[in-house]
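Format notes (please read before filing issues)

Several people have asked whether sequences and structure tokens are stored in separate files. They are not. Every record keeps both together, in the order shown below: the sequence lines, then the token lines. Line labels are part of the format and must not be stripped during preprocessing.
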Amino acid sequence: MAAVDLAGIEWVRLSFVDVFGTSNAVQIPASRFAAAAEHGATFDGSALEGQFRHLESDMLLRPDPATLVDLGDGIARAVCTVHTPDGNRWPADPRLALERIVAEGADVIEGMTVATELEFYLLDDDDVPLDGAGYFDETETAGSAIVRAAAQRLVASGVPVDAWHHETGPGQYELDLAPLDPLRFADAVVLTKLIVQAVARSRGARATFMARPFAELPGSGLHLHQRGPGTIVDGKGNLTPLSRGLVAGQIAHARALSALAAPTVNSYKRLHAGPEAPSAIVWARANRRALIRVSRYSGADASIEFRGADPAANPYLLLTGLLAAGLDGFEQDLDLPQPAEETAGGYDAVSTEHRIEPLPRSLDDALDALIADDTVVDAFDDQLLGRLVAGRRAEAEAYRGHVTQWERNRYLDDA
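Then the structure lines:
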């Protein structure tokens, strides 16, 4: 292993995500980092099951030295891969799933990059939006200072930031990450959420990446812009063969992808919820409610934008599913439906329900679609998928048994 500069570093945070995308870490003295990178550091692998863990299991974390970043105050962070005690990669590691699909599709997608628009709310101590600024508002607020500071820390940590701005909701912001290769992109999304939350806490605020934290306000999305390899559109503005295949595959497997893109019960309160949220399985160039939007830019700025994800998604699993679906569309030469463009009068999904399939309306529906889709299922190890589905089913079941204030208001006197 090449020497790693640990000057000024006392502790290294060995970071990994569980199957649900939650970031976890073990901290080791900097003096142990080289040995951990070569041989692995021991930890309780049941943490990979998230809050639904059952049995302890001996596992190893092996940090990738190329991902080491200085977080300040003598602490560094490195992204890890998960290994079994015999040194082999653990097949249910979410990062391994993405590595494998990238390797399997290398002949087709080598050079592909992904960028994102990451939306979130900043809240005060009472969980109220931190400010009342509006869409692209130029007003300087406590929230804008937090996002700017987070963006500066991200750039210093090697995460390229294209821009940030106020979003539609009060206290809602969007942070745009520049294009990266799929693995580095997923790593960057995890780090971005951690840094935004840390900066917000340091300034007495709270950052939430919940899909829809307020019933009366817009939800937050994680829009993925897929670019290259090569061009997305030709000189006449038409999709290239690879781009057609990617869009066709992601449309064909859209219902299964929803379980990865919109992974919580709350996610489905964002979908179908307004003019900016996707609801139908359509693609377009100009349609705010389309699941996939092909930008009208040309050259390097052109992208295939997947709009069905929210920030709760595990970025490793989401990208694995999107790539598996897109590669299937290209390799099987799947038919691409006609685009469903928005007109001056808007787009009415209801009036076209007989020919346009809606996205799932609940997490259970999405999980049913996932396990019924052989193409997407085959992209994941059985252990990983089993843990994911079982955990999300348990969440859905717990939610069904929860009595809400809305129900009390509606039925206490009227039932």
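For reference, the curators noted about this record: The chain has twelve helices and 14 strands. Residues 350-354 have pLDDT under 50 and may be disordered.
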